[in-house]
Design brief:
The protein is an alpha+beta fold. The chain has one helix at residues 55-77; strands at 7-11, 14-21, 31-41, 47-50.
Length: 83
């Protein structure tokens, strides 16, 4: 993954971070990956992150992932002169 995310999308405490990765081997084409986290406060009131989501949170995360996909998949699949 790169050092800096290319995009961060949020819905309340749900966060999707999109990363641009460099291809390797014969395929030098960049590709994108995403991480999904939920923020919460622990018993001491300190903020933590988890990858565990409830049913409603999964729907919200899937909406964020769909937005990220529609934003970035064309950048990889389309020739540069068409972007």
């Amino acid at each position: 993954m790169s050092n800096q995310p290319v995009c961060t999308l949020r819905d309340g405490r749900i966060k999707v971070v999109v990363w641009q990765n460099n291809g390797n081997g014969n395929n030098k084409k960049p590709f994108y990956s995403a991480t999904v986290t939920k923020s919460y406060q622990d018993d001491k009131g300190e903020w933590q992150e988890t990858n565990s989501l409830t049913g409603n949170e999964m729907v919200r995360a899937s909406t964020l992932l769909a937005r990220a996909y529609s934003r970035y998949h064309h950048q990889v699949d389309m020739p540069k002169d068409m972007q």
